[in-house]
Specification:
Helix content: 25-40%
Largest sheet: 6 strands, antiparallel
Order of helices and strands: HHEEHEEEEHHHEHEEH
Distance between the termini: 41 Å
Protein name: DUF932 domain-containing protein
Number of domains: 2
Oligomer: single chain
Pfam families: DUF932 (PF06067)
Strand content: 15-25%
Radius of gyration: 20 Å
Structural class: alpha+beta
Shape: globular
Length: 273
């Protein structure tokens, strides 16, 4: 197995995201609220051949939410764990949930890029996104969700292959970067040069493919540190990282949709190659 990526035990998960192991919901929930602790799903994923490799939980402003907040777990197949250097990216499953009545179980498909540890969450409208409500919960529903999500892996592999085969002009890359800026910021009050998002940090990204541009932009936005200007105060500053679970997933999905649109336009011949 990879020296850097290995399955996490329940004890290790508890250290990084204690809310996964909450034994009861937050106080004040309705008697009709069906509580299902997240940790009870872990063995179902493991039995399906998917093991937790990463987890985190949202920061809370109100201490009453501590231990019940939204949390996220990333699962990787045993096959891919046993072949850590076989691919440039892996198709993982992402599970999100909370114990404060703000979320059902959400199962998404994600692409994890090894070179920069980017996790790109695939939008539901393009592939699959499964929600499992707590009411009427059964382990069988979890198994079905895993099967449904993983059935789309061949399709996402094909999509990534298409992204890698499409070459962009500098103008096209800047248009994609500007789309990402529109997703993340109010351009009436903030200004960012598109080129700030297109800086090459890895040898693998020195080619001007759609896949390369996508990853450069995504990493720049998620990690922060991008030079910006506040148009109201006229002051320069650097962007903050996107840390929240919901904000990260939302941005990733919207950016993926924008990349899909570029791919469609290029394949249809509307953009200049």
């Amino acid at each position: 197995m990879s020296k850097n990526i290995k399955p996490l035990t329940n004890e290790e998960l508890l250290k990084v995201a204690p809310s996964i192991f909450s034994e009861n919901p937050i106080e004040g929930v309705s008697d009709k609220y069906a509580f299902v602790p997240t940790y009870k799903l872990l063995d179902t994923f493991r039995n399906a051949g998917y093991y937790p490799i990463m987890a985190s939980e949202s920061k809370v402003r109100d201490e009453e939410n501590q231990g019940y907040q939204k949390h996220i777990i990333q699962f990787r197949s045993l096959e891919n764990l046993l072949r850590p250097n076989a691919k440039d990216e892996y198709e993982d499953i992402v599970l999100t949930n909370s114990h404060n009545r703000t979320s059902s179980f959400i199962v998404d498909l994600a692409i994890f890029r090894i070179v920069c540890s980017n996790m790109l969450v695939v939008p539901s409208k393009s592939f699959v996104h499964t929600s499992i409500v707590h009411v009427g919960f059964t382990q069988e529903k979890v198994k079905n969700a895993i099967e449904e999500v993983t059935s789309f892996i061949p399709k996402i592999k094909e999509q990534v292959s298409i992204f890698k085969s499409i070459y962009l002009t500098n103008a096209e890359m800047q248009m994609l970067a500007n789309a990402a800026i529109d997703i993340r910021f109010d351009t009436n009050t903030h200004y960012i040069k598109a080129d700030e998002l297109l800086k090459v940090n890895y040898e693998e990204d020195e080619v001007n493919t759609l896949w390369s541009a996508y990853n450069r932009i995504q990493e720049s936005m998620i990690r922060g540190g991008v030079k910006m200007k506040n148009l109201i105060t006229n002051k320069n500053f650097t962007s903050k990282a996107i840390n929240g679970i919901d904000a990260t997933i939302k941005f990733n999905k919207e950016l993926f949709s924008a990349v899909e649109q570029v791919a469609q336009l290029k394949c249809d011949g509307y953009l200049v190659a």
